[in-house]
Amino acid sequence: MQDLSIPQALVSSVAGARHVMVVTGAGMSAESGVPTFRDAQTGLWSRFRPEELATPEAFEADPDTVWAWYEWRRDLVARAEPHAGHRALAELAGLVPRLTLVTQNVDGLHERAGSRDVVEFHGNLFANRCFLAGHALRDVPRPCAKPPTCPTCGSLVRPGVVWFGEAIPESALARAAASAGDCDVFLSVGTSSLVYPAAGLAHLARDAGAVTVEINPEPTEFAGVATHALAAPAGRALPALLASVQQALASGRA
Ligand code: BJW
Q1: How far is the CA of 93 from the centre of ligand 1 (A)?
Q2: CATH number for the domain including 47?
Q3: Cα of 194 from ligand 1 centre, angstroms
Q4: Residue-range definition of the domain harbouring residue 136
Q5: 31-83 pLDDT, tens per residue?
Q6: Which of 14, 122, 144, 170 is the most exposed place for a label (fewest CB within 10 A)?
Q7: Is residue 184 part of a domain?
Q8: Residues 203-225 pLDDT 10s
Q9: What is the distance between the alpha carbons of residues 131 and 108, in angstroms, rounded to a whole number?
Q10: Same domain for 86 and 74
Q11: CB within 8 A of 32, min separation 6: which ones?
C-alpha cells in the first residue's frame, strides 16, 4: 500500500495541541466490516432503507422488524474487530494532553480498541431500554428474536440508540458541545456530515478557531471548509497521522 503523506502543518498542529477532539461516523467502522449507515444493507435487509427503520414511528408500527434488524446488526458487530485506525486513535490519546472522542457509532469498537471515556452520541446497540418509560435493561439474553417486555412496566424493550427525531443524551451533547468550543484541533472521521446535531460540532469547532480536518475517501461538503482534507480511508489515514505525530514529538518538532 502506498504511504499517505500527511501535511507537515497538520502534524505540527496535532503534536502541539492542548486539546484534540475527534468525531467519528459510520465510515470509521467500514474497514471492520460494519456497513456504513447508508450503504446498501445485505441479504434480508436490502429491501429496507435504514432511515426508515431508525425511527420511533417505525418501532411503534412494526417492533418485530425493527428489533430483528438490530439483532442482525448486533451479530455483525459482535463478530467485527477494531482496525488499525481505531487503535491509532486510542494511542493518540496518550500523546496529547487531552483528547475527546465522540462517536456517532453504536458498535463499541472504539472502546474495544482501548479508547477510554468515549462519548457515545447516538447510544449503543447493546444498551436496551423500554420504549415507554426508558427503564434501562443492559442484559437482554441473546439471541432474542422478538423485543422482550420491560419487567418494571410491561412496555416493549427497544435498542438504546438515538433514532431520528429523538434528543441526544443530555450529558453527551453537553460534553461534545463544550469540547468543540475548547479544542484546538478537530478531526471529523468517516461521517457524511449530514446528520445533526453531530454534524454541527465541526462548525462549532471551526468557528471557535480550531484547525479542522476531514478524513473520508469521499470528501463531504465539510471538506470544502476544513483546514485539511485527507481523502483516504480511516484505517490508513489515522495510523499515518499517528506515526507522523510520534516522529515529530520524538524529534522535538512539535
Ligand atoms: C469512510 C470509509 C472509510 C466510508 N474511512 N470514511 C438541522 C437541519 C435539518 C434536519 C435536522 C437538523 N437538526 C436535526 C435535524 C433532524 C435530524 C437530521 O439531522 N436529519 C438529517 C438527515 C437532515 N436529526 C435528528 O433527528 C437528531 N435529533 C434531533 O435533532 O433531536 C432534536 C430534539 C431535541 C429535543 C427533543 C426531541 C428532539 C437525532 C439524529 C439521530 C441519528 N441516529 C442514527 C441512528 C442511530 C442508531 C442506529 O445506528 O441504528 O445515527 S441515523 C444514522 O446517521 C446514525 C449515524 O450515526 C448517523 C450519521 O451517519 P454517518 O456516520 O454520517 O454515516 P453515513 O453512512 O451517512 O456516512 C458514512 C461516511 O463514511 C460517508 O461519507 C463515506 O464516504 C465515509 N466512509 N468508508 C472513512 N473506510
Answers
A1: 25
A2: 3.30.1600.10
A3: 6
A4: 43-79+129-161
A5: 999 999 878 677 667 778 888 899 999 999 999 999 999 999 999 999 999 99
A6: 170
A7: yes
A8: 999 999 999 999 999 999 999 99
A9: 22
A10: no
A11: 80, 81, 82, 83, 86, 107, 109
Q: Which atom of ligand 1 approaches the CA of 38 most closely?
A: 66
Ligand 1 centroid distance, CA of 168 (Å): 11
Distance CA 76, CA 87 (A): 20
Q: Based on the fold, state whether residues 240 and 204 are members of the same structural domain.
A: yes
- Considering the entire predicted model, what is its pTM? 0.97
Instruction: List Cα–Cα distances, 237 to 45, 241, 246, in angstroms.
Output: 31, 6, 14
Clarify whether 122 is annotated catalytic: yes
Catalytic one among 19, 110, 122, 228?
A: 122
Number of domains in the chain: 2
- 239: in domain: yes
Q: Are residues 55 and 153 in the same domain?
A: yes
Output the nine-digit C-alpha cell for 227.
483546514
